[in-house]
Amino acid sequence: MKSFPKAFLWGGAIAANQVEGAYLKHGKGLSTSDMQPHGVFGEVVERVADDNILQDQALKDVAIDFYHRFPQDIALFAEMGFTCLRVSIAWTRIFPNGDETTPNEEGLAFYDRLFDELAAHNITPLVTLSHYEMPWGLVKQYGGWGNRQTIDFFERYARTVFTRYQAKVKLWLTFNEINMSLHAPLTGVGLPHDSSKAEVYQAIHHQLVASARVVKACHEIIPESKIGNMLLGGLMYPLSCKPADVFEALQENRSWQFFGDVQCRGAYPGYMLRYFRDNGIELEITDTDRDALKSTVDFISFSYYMSGCVTADKELNEQLRGNILSMVPNPHLVSSEWGWQIDPLGLRTLMNMLWDRWEKPLFIVENGLGAKDKVEEDGSINDDYRIDYLNDHLVQVREAIDDGVEVMGYTSWGPIDLVSASKAEISKRYGFIYVDRDDKGNGTLARSRKKSFFWYRETIANNGANLK
């Protein structure tokens, strides 16, 4: 019978800026996320680092108040049987402006409490160093990742948390969805949205060097640790079997796979060097950089929500493109309420593709369905659509494992309702746990279990044997 490995890690994934709230508490500085109160594609709002001044209040300022309620939430995760929780550390809780030499002790102490709570429930933490945020001070004073100095600031931050939590955290990730910088440069690399391709790729290069340097640091400080990268799994199909469409799909997939090529192989692939030449992009890459890049990750983690299509037909391309990654819709797939196409088999395809390409263990660290949930009069939430989505994707994960793909675990995105990254709304719910709050900030923040809560609990208890 096809099954999941005995050591398979089951759980969920959250991000500091989408759940914690307390956005200026206990010495925390302002981040790029705080400056985008309406989401990663929203306008930048200059805010003041004063918790007493009310100004353009954002849902993320309180989010779901995980900062104060994490023991209660972790108890609920434990009730589901989680063996892993993916979290991120808010860089600005540790170094509020990013360039300090001494870390903020109150910020460090918060994550000590969080990791201790996870340990008390035998839940393994998987920790992302930078999840869609960086100190606003580094953007304002240095130009974000466009400045080579940011590499040193990030390494100082990483070494600080590796040293502090070396006994508590053995699984780490560097940058969340590192390839997203091509679509949202402020969120990804701290650059304005109108930055040139050359500027964005130079900032990405600095980030790739920083990633490699902290991989090396992690291995030095925590020898028994494993540290991976994190990719947005943007699987693209050719819209037709025309050779031009097939080649266009190859190029589109390479545009994000190159991040993994550098992080897994330790050097820029030839196709990217050609891309830079063809587009007149000359990166400053030093011999020291090339040497640093040789420190490669231990495993590949990735998100997967949907697939898309591409076509070489420019007119058709202009007519059809839409949604967050500007994909051409697949006529053979249905879409969610938010226009994200549902493609469970695509996950198996992607897993095989990544395994064949890099032959490193995979970790699915984001996958889930955003939907509007209805609370019934008796308080129940019958989210069978979420159960169906997750069941169908997990079946394909099991199939990929049977194909020979090595998989470490699965953490569903948003095991508890949280504020979405794209538009900073909470009405787009992913959780097994409902949070009583709406897009206007109204609600008690009370938690309640959805139908999917009990389904996921059964799935974990049976190690996936109940999947249909």
UniProtKB/TrEMBL annotation:
It is an enzyme of class 3 (hydrolase). Its EC number is 3.2.1.86. The active site is at E366 (nucleophile). Transmembrane segments: none annotated. The keyword Heme does not apply. Keywords: Glycosidase, Hydrolase. This is 6-phospho-beta-glucosidase. It comes from Kosakonia calanthes.
